[in-house]
């Protein structure tokens, strides 16, 4: 195992947020509770992912949990109340849904570095990451129908796209736990490695992706999402296409012509068949 100097990006209370060589690492830091998330954790995750989007030097994000027992065990049952997970002001929240959307919409690859249990809402968090690399001790599963919750959004439909309808129903209806190897065979884990090689493997995958064209990866991610996300997915892909269009002289000509109060001359640009 290589020892890396992860440098803090910003201090939070329930997560760690660090960087190394263009890679951000976000660690849910509540090992005492198997890294269950509270509304504060999800707020901090949201803020960290927003920063990852803004920081140009960050090219890939790793999401993980502290310790060697859990990636994330879902919503913290201690604060589960009527209407959601109760924050410090007494407001019920289901804000992990916003984090799921942020991970899907982040125009950079996100790797779930699954170092133990990925259970309940923690399982959905790994699902929505672009890639999952798991240690041999990782265990996967949904518990909702056993503990009085469910995620019928990405947690159901995206899971079914990944493992098939029958298997997705089995995972949710029976609430069983699956080994890392089983999860890999089902298609929801890219690679399983010994625990002490997990971070090295994730960093190696991140560094390999960083040798690829960032815009190509961004467009592929948007395209893969668009197929599943309907108009919201198309909006993201279309937004990326617009960004690229704005780099063209043809697009600049339209704006320039308007400001110069003349007719735009689009004929001078190549019309590629
Ligand atoms: C993870 C498990 C399997 C680990 O078992 P293990 O190793 O035997 O440890 P334990 O002794 O059970 O746990 C150690 C300590 O950690 C506490 N703890 C564990 N998980 C949680 C948790 N989720 N919340 C609070 N505390 C937790 C234990 O209580 C124990 O503490 P002590 O030492 O004091 O006894 C095992 O722990 C387990 O099965 N955990 C529960 C997993 C689970 O059911 N999670 C699902 C929670 N629900 C969701 O995630 C639903 C998500 C949701 O609500 C949602 C749905 C749709 C849209 C939005 C949302 C949203 O969340 O916003």
Automatic annotation (TrEMBL):
Binding site for substrate: 34, 85, 117-121, 143, 149, 246, 261
Site features described as Important for catalysis, chain residue numbers: 85, 246
Cofactor: hydrogencarbonate
Record-annotated membrane-spanning stretches: none
CDD domains, sorted: crotonase-like (cd06558)
Pathway assignment: Quinol/quinone metabolism; 1,4-dihydroxy-2-naphthoate biosynthesis; 1,4-dihydroxy-2-naphthoate from chorismate: step 6/7; Quinol/quinone metabolism; menaquinone biosynthesis
Keywords: Lyase, Menaquinone biosynthesis
Domain of life: Bacteria
GO molecular-function terms, A-Z: 1,4-dihydroxy-2-naphthoyl-CoA synthase activity
Enzymatic reactions: 2-succinylbenzoyl-CoA + H(+) = 1,4-dihydroxy-2-naphthoyl-CoA + H2O
Keyword presence, Transmembrane helix: no
EC code: 4.1.3.36
Top-level EC class as recorded in UniProt: lyase
Pfam families with a match to the protein in the record: ECH_1
Residues noted as binding hydrogencarbonate in the record, renumbered to the chain: 142-144
Family: Belongs to the enoyl-CoA hydratase/isomerase family. MenB subfamily.
Summary of the function given for this chain in its UniProt record: Converts o-succinylbenzoyl-CoA (OSB-CoA) to 1,4-dihydroxy-2-naphthoyl-CoA (DHNA-CoA).
NCBIfam families from the UniProt entry: menB, PRK07396.1
Name of the protein this chain belongs to: 1,4-dihydroxy-2-naphthoyl-CoA synthase
The species this protein was found in: Xylanibacter brevis
């Amino acid at each position: 195992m290589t020892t890396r100097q992860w440098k803090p990006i910003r201090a939070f209370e329930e997560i760690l947020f660090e960087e190394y060589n263009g890679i951000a690492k976000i660690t849910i830091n509540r090992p005492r509770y198997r890294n269950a998330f509270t509304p504060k954790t999800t707020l901090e995750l949201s803020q960290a992912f927003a920063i990852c989007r803004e920081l140009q030097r960050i090219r890939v994000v790793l999401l993980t949990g502290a310790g060697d027992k859990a990636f994330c065990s879902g919503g913290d049952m201690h604060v589960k109340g009527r209407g959601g997970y109760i924050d410090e002001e007494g407001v019920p929240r289901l804000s992990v849904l916003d984090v799921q959307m942020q991970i899907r919409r982040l125009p950079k690859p996100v790797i779930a570095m699954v170092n133990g249990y990925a259970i309940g809402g923690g399982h959905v968090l790994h699902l929505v990451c672009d890639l999952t690399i798991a240690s041999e001790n990782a265990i996967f599963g949904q518990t909702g129908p056993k503990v009085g919750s469910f995620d019928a959004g990405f947690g159901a439909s995206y899971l079914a796209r990944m493992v098939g309808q029958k298997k997705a129903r089995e995972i949710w209806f029976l609430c069983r736990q699956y080994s890392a190897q089983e999860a890999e065979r089902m298609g929801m884990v890219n690679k399983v490695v010994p625990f002490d090689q997990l971070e090295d493997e994730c960093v190696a995958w991140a560094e390999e992706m960083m040798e690829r064209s960032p815009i190509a990866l961004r467009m592929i991610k948007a395209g893969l999402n668009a197929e599943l996300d309907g108009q919201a997915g198309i909006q993201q892909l279309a937004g990326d296409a617009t960004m690229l269009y704005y780099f063209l002289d043809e697009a600049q000509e339209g704006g320039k012509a308007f400001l110069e109060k003349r007719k735009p001359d689009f004929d001078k640009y190549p019309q590629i068949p």
